[in-house]
Amino acid sequence: MNGVLHIVSTPIGNLEDITLRALRILKEVDVIAAEDTRHSSKLLTYYGISKPLISYWGEKEKVKSTEILERLRGGQSVALISDAGTPGISDPGAVLIKKALEEGFNVISIPGTSALIAALSISGLSTEEFTFIGFLPSKKSQRQKALKALSLEARTLVIYEAPHRILETLSDMKEIFGERRIAVAKEISKIHEEVSRGNISDVLNRLEKSTVAGEYVLIVEGRIEEKMLTTDDALLEVSMFIKKGLGRKEAVKRVAEAYGLSKKELYHKSLDVE
Fold first, then answer.
1. Backbone angles phi, psi at 215, to 5 degrees
2. Strand-pair partners of 108
3. Range of the domain at 151
4. Deepest of 47, 93, 132, 159, by most Cβ within 10 A of its Cβ?
């Protein structure tokens, strides 16, 4: 009989933010696969859980997934946990989950705390539709390219960022997004939890004067579409994207799709502007 792989969400800060079901599963499984066994031992010790542990952090995931699959083939049940939050969501775990599904194993979600949902819920920004980006590229040029690609996105953006890049990222957002509203959540559910809200410039100025530390979640207002857009306005936006390095075809595509215009017509008109 094949085993079962449980994807268990763990606290992102406060150790009490774990479900009763998650605790039961962690106590019942044969083995726990943890991103970092040293980190996870704190949680398991806190709740008196003693189980064999397998580490699968970083490059080890590709190697250790083979060992974990062998245990599943042998009928053992496995709980997969990351250091915080849900495995596979901007955390290791996706490799093992994919392989387990490909082999036909039963993969069960044990839901719980999520930093992106927690931050979004207290942001004060629209929660009807949102786009989760995860971590932006670390290199400035690639990060700016990614932000430019998101500049016409009308849905709320949810982005993770490390403390050593938060100021640079906000500066890039100010340049590319302008003065949109933003909520920056720091250390959610931890002792030094803090949320800064306002336009991008205001929040950037506050963070520059404060101690930057911990994990950050950025909730950024989506692009507000004007009710009426003239052809001249659309052509100006196309020109703006081209000046920022985007190809004409891609620039036209983004503007046309954002405002429901004809790509072919807008393309030809953009040639006449030059």
1. -95, 140
2. 6
3. 116-220
4. 159
